[in-house]
Amino acid sequence: MTSKTHHTEVVRATRSSRIAMTLCLALLLALIAMPWWASSGNIRWAIELSCYIAIAQMWNLLAGYAGLVSVGQQAFIGVSGYLLFVLAQNFGVNPFVAVLLSLIAPAILAVPTYLLLRRLDGPYFAIGTWVVAEAVRLATSNIDYVNAGAGLTLRVMTQYSQHEREVGFVLLCALLLLTTIGGSYWLLRSRIGLALTAMRDNPVAAASQGVNVGRLRFYIFIAAAVGTGFAGAIYYMAQLRITPSAGFDPFWGSMSIFIVMVGGIGAIEGVLIGALIYFLADRLFGEFGSAYLIVLGLLTLVIALYARGGVWGLMQKWGDHAWFPVRRKLIVEDTP
Amino acid sequence: MQWLDAVIQGVLLGGMYAQYALGMALMFGVMRIVNIAHGDVMILLSLIAVSLAGVLPFGNLGLIVVIVPIAVVIGWILQKFILNKVVGADPLPSLIATFGLSIALQNFMLEIWSADTRSLPNSDIASASFQIGSIYVGLLPVIVLITALVLTGGLDAVLRFSRFGRGLRAAAADTEAAAMTGVDPKRIYAIATAIAVGILGLAAVFAALRATVSPSDGSAQLIYAFEAVIIGGMGSVWGAFLGAMVLGVAQAIGLRIDPGLGILFGHLVFLAVLATRPEGIMARKK
Q1: I want to staple A110 with a disulfide (CB 3.0 to 4.6 A). Which of A222, A336, B147, B286 is the partner?
Q2: Residue B184 — very low, low, confident or very high, per pLDDT cuts 50/70/90?
Q3: What transmembrane ranges does the database entry give (chain B) (predicted)?
Q4: Looking at chain B from residue 257 to 276, which residues have their Cβ under 8 Å from any Cβ of chain A?
């Protein structure tokens, strides 16, 4: 009798993922190099697109994996934007450092928000997040220290040259994408990712397998709030101005829902596809105003009714070419 | 005296909110669905009423007779083509579908009616008022409150005593078990949505008589209805009514303190109830 030894190996990367990873790194480097090759207009577009991707991916983490549908993520965009303006303008903190410090605001707001709203049943949770966002918006409009409804202007940015500002912004955007997209990918491939995927498929079954669903949801809610706030701070820093009606605009919620649903929920690929579609549609059809928004609304409705996987879901029917694979494939080879 | 006045005005305002909230409580109770376009449908009906008022020589009562059937039909369409496809344990599809509908409806109304605020032509009822002591009370808000009271009592009675009510309560408790005993859930859902949107039709005419409406007002009405339902306690029709009163009073008192604080006060009372009594002030005993 000859005993066979088995050589086993867990394979996680695929050919498509290697191509995607190389492309992502190349794009990230191109983004960082933008101040030396692109026009300021294009850099502004890149900042905007990065913020859309980050905010949408955070919503995807919430709705696609944690089963927490929020329509009030604008609360976190507004509070971090405001803290950034106050720190930079009133306390003289370097604005690029203040962006990172301002992340404390969404983290602090997310804790009581989650602890209060988790008492509400699924769909009621969603509208609860909206109430919190509205309450924070109205409160901000009544605080004279932040200029009430008139909003704040980031005058300190004039101390930097155009080039310095652009370098700062692209570095912040690269960091934003690394933490939100890269961070999500890392999270999904880790042990927690297994728990999250189990929770996405069936929370009750996941709990019975030892996943602490409640605690995991809590952590995801806070992480998503911080990621969303990060994007918000960068966005309003680039705008140089923030008002309660802009910073806490429910539009942010609509945008993330549209991007994630059209692109494909529960997949990072979906967010990237959706963000690109939204960004291009906005450039091409934005001028049509309400007619364009009717189409966006109906498209979201139709996808919720008939194609819940979105564009990425349809693409996967033609073959499995994941850009960000999170699966593990066990390969067993007999060695003589 | 000024605070008593605020409380009275708040209760009257609550009558309006109760009409928004009843339908939401009913639909959530039976289908576990929240229709995000709830407020937008109400605004749509208000705008239809305003446009019809210019054409039809019926007066306000006649307008109600026309709008409520339109509302029932809209409710039926909503159920048949959208909600029936998204009913289920997962809240995501129904939220996203009605969210998309809400965005589309708001912008559709903007295209048709523009962003202007509109209201029904001033009538005798809308401007009449009477005096109790030193407090003036509008006749129309009193009619709205009494209507809300009658609707709540009627709905409660229907749920308790009618065959449809028994079927609805059975379907809400356990859809599959109810289906086995001969209740048709789809039919129950359709009737519930038709009633819910029908009540909105009534609310829509009152809202356009009481104040102005514009295409973007829907989200605020959705939030008020939701707050009333949660403050009062989920699953109870009288709870939604009482929650609407509490919300109205909170807003009226906030408004007296500072004109910018009215709506914020409503939100804060909602959050306070959630923190201290999450089952609502009129929750069913377990």
Answers
A1: A222
A2: confident
A3: 6-29, 41-58, 95-115, 135-159, 188-209, 221-247, 259-276
A4: 258, 260-261, 263-264, 267-268, 270-271, 274-275
Q: How high is the pLDDT of residue B285?
A: 46
Instruction: Look at residue B235 in the predicted model and tell me its pLDDT.
Output: 64
Q: Does the model's ipTM exceed the 0.85 cut?
A: yes
Chain A nearest CA to B274, separation (Å): 6
Report whether pLDDT(B73) > 80. yes
Across residues A254-276, what is the average pLDDT?
93
What total number of domains does chain A contain? 1
Please indicate whether, in this complex, the C-beta atoms of A124 and B28 are within 8 angstroms of each other.
Answer: yes
Chain B, window 11-50: residues with a beta carbon less than 8 angstroms from a chain A beta carbon:
28, 32-34, 36
Residue of chain B whose Cα is closest to the Cα of A133? B267
pTM of the model: 0.91
The stretch A229-236 carries a mean pLDDT of: 96
Residue A163 within any structural domain of the chain: yes
**Region B2-276: CATH code:** 1.10.3470
Contacts of B21 (CB under 8 A, 6+ apart): B224, B225, B226, B228, B229, B232, B240, B241, B243, B244
Among candidates A120, A123, A141 on the partner chain, residue whose Cβ is nearest the Cβ of B95: A123
Of B99, B101, B105, the CB nearest to A257: B99
In sign, the C-alpha dihedral spanning A202, A208, A211, A217 is positive
- The answer as to whether A25 is a domain residue is yes
pLDDT (tens digit per residue) in B41-53: 999 999 999 999 8
Residue A167 falls within a domain, yes or no? yes
What is the DSSP secondary-structure string of B206-268?
A: HHHHHS-B-GGGHHHHHHHHHHHHHHH-TT-HHHHHHHHHHHHHHHHHHHHH-TTTHHHHHHH
Tokens of B73: 């039909």
